[in-house]
Amino acid sequence: NFAENPDKRINGIKILAVDNSDTTPSDFTVSTQMNLASRDTLKVNYLVRENSEGKYKVLDIAIENVSLITTHRSEFTAIAMARGVDGVIQKLTKLVSQDANIILSMK
Asked: Do 63 and 80 meet the contact criterion of CB atoms below 8 Å apart?
């Protein structure tokens, strides 16, 4: 697990830029650099949208230019083609269960 490796622990986060040239006026990208204990750095970009109430929501996270949305979409497409909708539902159920267990173990 990435987070359990002491060399991969985050020592700091630096905001590099906020770019509002995205496709819609309410979307913008926040570019950051994460400094790891090993002195390596990771580029992490957040695609953010401001809603009509002035609240912000992260739509996507790209780590080293790899989009989590695109990665998950590809994974779920492969599962759907191999095992159908039931396979996708099983995968989502497993992910939700894992997230719940992680949250409970953090308390």
From this structure: no
